[in-house]
Structures are given as structure tokens and as C-alpha cells.
Design brief:
homohexamer, 130 residues, mainly alpha, AhpD-like, 7 helices
Chain lengths: 130, 130, 130, 130, 130, 130
């Protein structure tokens, strides 16, 4: 089977510009995976951004909110923060993020929900969002 | 502090009708929680549906997809199935569900992603969705 | 360092009689661990029952309820069931089990709480507890 | 269905006084959930304390130890710390906490058990408990 | 960046033959992911087998045992079973599998260790390994 | 049943020397478990090292890599770090560790894989491994 890797690569670049309009890169770019195996880290990004996020079946803001929700389920605070920031870069508002955390509480319980709220607060503070 | 429980109760009924247009109730209704502590189970539903899902800040379809994503993160197949069905009842398509699972793979890895795909397949089969 | 393994062994036998007054053994006895490495499986039981459960610092019923709570946190339905049965064998009532699940909901969220309630219902049904 | 929210509210206040006799509030009070959605955070506390902890079916100390056990299962160190402190405020001793961690080791394995022991040590140190 | 996808593809085929000498395919082949998005499922296999497993830095048997260990950590019984079978196809013995489960007990605790032992027993039974 | 505790004790000492040739002890030695219940902490080490790691059925380097893999599955960064260091003390190389993380990505997804890569980087930096 042949994979349209070059097309994914191009689409990934476009997605990156939408998610990181000012810095041009994720706040998690340059992490240890990128340092220890740059080719593999790049592959993950090309597939994630170029195959998944760039696909127009679901709009980018909905996708970003779903990733936030998944990461709250996983309890990964640093990634939740990253994706709340990404979702706000493609149009999500503070109120939507807070509403999402309230909804997720029902499924994940207090400790993981609070991880979500704290990640949200960190991003809001960073951006001066009241 | 006073909580608008009656308002939530009414809004919860409306949400229930949107999620379960034909049967009027969740496929997980009547579970052991509802049997062993009906008041508490009802409270959870009133808060979940009336306080969270009914709030117009995020539309119902986006909310349902986020719940699917969160449950894939938790690895809870039966609940993923339930919420894929709910999301399709408020407008999500087969293609959107499949796309979502591809995207979530990146965060959850193979075993949990396959739980998501299997839940999706079960719902598609049940509904005769090609 | 010297470990009082023989003492633990004796105390473990006594604990076993309290937890399994009618059958004399756990419903999970004879599982694959016991079959594939009987010595190691026996060691775990001697330490668990003889070092931990037999220690009088915490009474057996409180210990059993704590184990139920821990296993609900882990989301392990079969083990939750086993320990609800054990806790009832040392004095826990249906009402206490139901109350515990309501309390744990706050920390674990719906899917794991429902695992707890379903395990409880299975044990209540098995025993004909109304 | 009607929920006795006012009664829960009153009972919650009484529970709060028992858990936090000196400060009057949880060490996790004022977290990001309380800041971003005070009404929802208050609701959770009213239900948790007023519906669950205040119910006399299980005494407060046993409940607190069960919550510690559940949180060790979840691996949530900050919450384990909080609930070890709460349990000691309603009568649990250092020896009981240490015994509980030994018991839970069997179910959760080393990394989560060590989270429990480290949370315990932090609370003991804070209180000057030898 | 250019990825050697064709090389990975070829190497993946070779790995597949080593892991599945008799059937030519994984017992999990044809799962819902492969059915709902065959291209993506194929990509995962090409990368997993062709980029990771085929790389000679670590031999195939050690890799397979590490995957078993990781999956026991995740608590995914069906995948543990699959990878115990794979590891035995590239040289792992019953004794090694049992030894590994004993070792992992220390980190994962009883419920997940028993998942590992039960998966092992299922594979041993299937193969008539005494 | 009689357990060869003294033999395990002696074998545990030998394993300890292999894993910690320079310091003679684990970097996690003296943690809160060892402080609050030294006998129990010692028992765990005697069983883990003397019963499991010392058994020659699987060589020490393969065992250490399997423990790393299990801990990446559990998402326990501090323990992953400890066991990457241990595995390198018994012969694992930087390349093997990086390869292992690439392989595990497939099962655990991005956040846990990055925990693994970051633990690896921390150990490589500490040792001046290029």
C-alpha cells in the first residue's frame, strides 16, 4: 500500500500555521522525543497533523476540543494545557473550555477534572483572558 | 448557595429527548446505579444533562464527540459505544466517528484506539450504517 | 533482616477463615497465577493476609471496605466483586456498600462508579440480599 | 424528582467543620475549579459532603480511609495527601495510615504504593507526627 | 523530511513472517480499525513492524517480551495474549513468560498481574504447552 | 508452604551489586516506604531482587528493559528513569533505550511515550552519554 506522505507533510504545515499563528511551533516542540529520534517525532507530527487534523471531515476547533477531552480522560496535565492553548488558537473561548471541564467531570471524577480546570486556568492567565 | 435544580431538571428532559428520540432513554438506563440508589442516579443525570449538556455554550454534537473522546482516553468500551450512538442521534456521521478515532490514536495508542474502533463498528452494525 | 514468615502463615490461615467461612477459600483461588506459579501465589497470600489483613491496627471490615474502594479506583470489576463479598463476610451490609459507591463516584466518575454498583448488584443477587 | 439540596447543604457544613477543625476549609479549597465555576464546585462539595460523607451509614473515619484507598488506586498524590490529612482530623492515626499503605501495595504495586507512602510522610512531617 | 516508507513496508513483511509463521497474520488482524480505516491500520503496522520491530538494535524476542510487559502495565488482556503468542513464535518459552509475570507483579499489583497470568495460561492451553 | 527467604536474601544482594555497581543502592532507596515501614520495604526488595531478578531464566538486561516497558505503560516517569539507569548498568545502550521508546509509542500513545523519552534524556544527560 502507498501512503500519501508528501501530501500529509504539506497539509501538516498548514495545520501547524493555524495552531501556532504567532510562534510557528507547538509549546511542546523540541521535547525529548524530537531530540532523541527527530525522524520518528517528525513522522508522528506529519501523520497527526497531515492525516488527522488536516482532514476536513471534522473542523479544527471541534478536533482540538476532542483532544482536550481525551487528554483529560488520560489525566495528562501538560498536554491538556497545550491543547487548550491550541483550541483557543483556532477559535475556542474561555467559556467553552470551562463548560467542557464541567461536562467531563461526570466521567472522570474530581482529581482529573481539577487537572483540566488547572490547565485551563494556566492558559487563561498566560493570555490575560478574564 | 442556591442551585437551579428545577431548571436543570427541565432542561435535562429536553436533552434526553434529543439524545434518545426513539426510545426516550439511554441504553445504559436502568443500570445497577439506578437500581441501587435511584435518587443519586437521577441527580447525576439532572446535573449532567441539565447543567452540562443543555448549556448552549457548546452545541450538543460537539459535546457528544468530546465525551466519546474522553471515554476513549478512559478506555471504557461500553460507554464509548453509548456515546457514539448518542452523538449520531444528534447529527454525527460515520465518517466523523472514524476520523475521530484516527485522531485519538495519536494520544491513546493501539489498544484504546481499537476499543474506540470496535465500539464504532458495533454501533454502525446495529444501525445498518454502511 | 529476618521476616516472621511462619507467623504470617498462621495468621493468614485465620484471616482466610474469617473471609471465607463457608467455602474456606477465595472465589479467585485457583486462578492462573496459582496454577502457573503456586509458590509465588502462596507467598502473595501469606504476605497479604498474614502481614496486612491480620494486623489488628485496622479491623478487618474497614480493611475490606478500603480494598473495595481501591479496586473501584483501579476499575477492576471482578476484584471489586470479590472484595464486596469478602467485606460482607466480615460484617459489611448492603447499605454500607451502596453508600461507599455513592461516595466514590465523586473521585472516579461515572464509568468506574457503575463498575462498582454492578459488582455490588451481582453480589447482592448471588446472596439474595434485598 | 426532588433533591433535598438544602438539607445536604447544612449537613455539608457540619462535615466541613469535622474535617477542617482549625482552618475551616480544605487545603484544596480555592483550586481552579472553584475559581472558574464557583457554583459547580460548590455543588460538588454539597453533594459529596452533604449527601455522601454526612450520611451516618458509614462513620466519617472509615469513609476517609476508603477515599484514601481509592485515591491511591487512582495514583493521585495531591489528593491522597489531602485525604490522609482529613482522615487524621477525624481520628485516623499514623499507624493506621501506614498499615493501609502496606495493604494497598498488594493491589496497586510499587509506584502507586510509594505515592501513598510519600503522601503519608508529607502529612506526618507537616504535623510533627513521630 | 523524507521517510523510507517503502523500506519499512518491506521490512514489515519480513517481521510479519517471523511473528506469524503458520497463519501469516496477527490474531488481531481484521479488527475494527482495519475494517473502518484500512489505510490507517496498514500505516500503523508498517511503522510498528518496519520502523520499530525490524530494527536490529534490539532482537525480536526481547522486543516482544517488552511489549508484553508494557501491555501488562496497561492492563490490556487481549493484547497481552496476542503478544505472549508472538513472543513464543520468536523463541520465548513458557518459563520465561511465567518469570516475567512474577517480576511485573511488583510494579502492577495483583489485578493486572493476574491478567498477565491468565493471558499466559490461555496461550499455553491453546498450544498444548505443559 | 516454606519460602526460601534466606536464599532470596542472598541472591538479592548479588543483584543489587549488579544494578548499582558504584553507589551500592537504588536511587529510590530511602524513599518514604523504606522510612515508614522498613521491614515491608525490605521484604519487597528481597522478593523482587531475590525471587524475580536473580532467577536466571531471563537475563538481567532483558528483565530491566521489560521493567522499563511496563513502567512506560504505567506512565511513572520517576520509576522509568530509575529503570533506564538500572538497565544501562547491566549493559543496555542509549540506542536500545531510544529504540524501545519508539516501539512502545505504538501501544501507549504520545503523552506516555514522551514521558519515556524524557526519562531517557534525563539519564543520558546525567551520564554524559552522547
Amino acid at each position: 500500500m502507498d501512503f500519501p506522505v508528501e501530501e500529509w507533510s504539506n497539509r501538516a504545515e498548514a495545520v501547524k500555521k493555524q495552531f501556532y499563528p504567532s510562534t510557528g511551533k507547538s509549546r511542546l516542540a523540541g521535547n525529548a522525543m524530537a531530540e532523541l529520534d527527530p525522524e520518528f517525532a517528525e513522522l508522528i507530527q506529519v501523520v497527526a497533523r497531515g492525516r488527522a487534523y488536516a482532514d476536513p471531515t471534522i473542523d479544527l476547533k471541534t478536533r482540538a476540543l476532542c483532544t482536550v477531552a481525551c487528554l483529560v480522560g488520560l489525566g495528562e496535565q501538560r498536554y491538556v494545557e497545550n491543547w487548550i492553548a491550541n483550541s483557543m488558537n483556532v477559535g475556542a473561548t474561555k467559556d467553552e473550555i470551562v463548560e467542557l471541564m464541567v461536562q467531563l467531570f461526570v466521567y472522570v471524577g474530581t482529581p482529573k477534572a481539577v487537572i483540566g480546570f488547572e490547565a485551563a486556568k494556566a492558559v487563561f492567565t498566560e493570555r490575560g483572558v478574564q
